[in-house]
């Protein structure tokens, strides 16, 4: 399974082509849209998300609600494009129009791709960089993740995501999985504890008032992953490594960990390795899940626990020093419309990015022309955990 996204933030549409999804999988645009809608929400988001109402149109690979095994193409229309037709359209624009609209960007924003992207691709209008480097692209990645999750659900693999920290306020108690499952999406910051949710909203409001932004930590948990997905044999087939790459490739993500993650550095080995147990109904299992479901780059049958760190959003209302690329004069980087905190939304992005990495690894592991074939092989793998 692989995919390619295309589209600029204020262009006509985002497009994604996904290849390798097995045939005969039931897919409805409405299920993908539910995930798209979640990405748009969350306390602290700016005006763009009120303009766009993201929904996908499926234009290939699905017939009468079922996949054909051919590439699936999804389109997300940018409603805002109508205001940007001249500036962002494919047709040439006259110098006069360009001048009248005064939309050429020569002031790179710190923390964005603007300056280095301009140098690298030889652009003098930094809009050519920011249109593609924008996190708008994550809408397309969520659409891919939603398709992946539909597939994985058929295999009894389920996803849960939440926010664990915003601007230093933490909801990181060691909740059991049942508590997490029954408290998903209960509030607009996506945390379990409602008191902490309010403290986080206050923190976001304070940051906004101060013209500042804040980041945080998010978590994705996957239940039902069969053992042995990934491999210890080659570095580029280790599933934890692939998930890490996927998460850090999301705009503004600066770190990833599994299970207890960085806390493992402080603890003795006896408190970090998960002891191996066996019962006749379920086979091998672990007495704990400190390692977050991975040993040797392979799933070990315990829930996979992925944590991701998001930096504060770089566009601030409180301006930062930068340099105009035409005049070389210093100026204070001013704001385009922006979120003050996108951590809740980003938790949805991480969940979907992880879903794609898992689906991809699973489809490499098994023969998978059609969903029935895949299901029976997954069943066999689950039995292996009992019979081995
Ligand atoms: C869901 C989401 C929403 C974001 N919204 C904004 C935003 O409104 N303004 C902004 O400056 N950056 C936003 N970002 C972050 C930037 O896209 C990102 O920091 C930038 O592309 C530079 O990439 P880097 O931080 O990975 O180096 C958002 C990121 C995510 C995941």
Class computed from helices, strands and strand pairing? alpha+beta
| CA gyration radius, whole angstroms | 22 Å
How large is the count of helical segments?
Answer: 12
Unique bound compounds? flavin mononucleotide
Return the average pLDDT rounded to an integer: 94
Characterize the overall form.
globular
Strand order of the largest sheet: 8-7-9-15-10
Quaternary status: single chain
Pathway: Metabolic intermediate biosynthesis; chorismate biosynthesis; chorismate from D-erythrose 4-phosphate and phosphoenolpyruvate: step 7/7
Catalytic activity: 5-O-(1-carboxyvinyl)-3-phosphoshikimate = chorismate + phosphate
Subunit structure: Homotetramer.
GO cellular component, one term: cytosol
Explain this structure to me?
Its EC number is 4.2.3.5. It catalyses: 5-O-(1-carboxyvinyl)-3-phosphoshikimate = chorismate + phosphate. One of its GO terms (molecular function) is FMN binding. Keywords: Amino-acid biosynthesis, Aromatic amino acid biosynthesis, FAD, Flavoprotein, FMN, Lyase, NADP. Helices cover about 35% and strands about 20% of the residues. It is of the alpha+beta class and about 400 residues long. The strands form six sheets. Strands 8-7-9-15-10 form a five-stranded antiparallel β-sheet. A four-stranded antiparallel β-sheet has the order 1-2-6-3, covered by helices on one side. It has a two-stranded antiparallel ribbon with strand order 4-5. The structure holds flavin mononucleotide. Flavin mononucleotide binds next to helix 11.
Quick summary:
This protein is an alpha+beta fold. 34% of the residues lie in helices and 20% in strands.
